Amino acid sequence: MKKINIVGTSGSGKSTVGQRLATKLNIPFIEMDALYWKPNWQEPSDEEFFAHLATALQQDRWVLDGNYNRTVAIKWADVDTVIWIDYSFARTLFQAVRRAIVRSLGQKEIWANTGNKESLRKTFFSKDSIILWTLKTYKKNRTRYQALLDDPNYSHIQFVRLTSPAKVDAFINQMSVD
């Protein structure tokens, strides 16, 4: 495994798993949200975002976390492994809520040089709520990733589906640096 994409619904733990795996394999970790979000929660054009992503993926080895379905052609062009964090709905929702509360109360900048911080108002009382996003996308993401797993166009990719934190731990613990 040299080029790995971690996917899963918001709140599933993609970044945490990605950072752990990158550390274990001693390869760069790339967070798609950090490439995407601009200061003050501004969104880039697709052209700008795709260019940032393509540049970041020019390395020989990496662990990339993130879905962004419209980037599949870019991020899966050279990927050899896709790890799907597919926890139960209850577990994923719990993690999303916990993360949102911790971020809101901590008021730490999420991505360097953006000034972007979570707030309780945005988390619980906004149409842009990450919790609402998790609720809306959980089932759709599971359906989509199962279809991609079965799609012969991606038969060259090793798909790994991890359904619990214990399975994530076992998977990462059995990894070795090449």
Automatic annotation (TrEMBL):
One of its GO terms (molecular function) is kinase activity. InterPro entries: Cytidylate_Kinase-2, P-loop_NTPase, Shikimate/glucono_kinase. Pfam families: SKI. It comes from Vibrio tritonius. Keywords: Kinase, Transferase. It comes from the Bacteria. This is (D)CMP kinase.
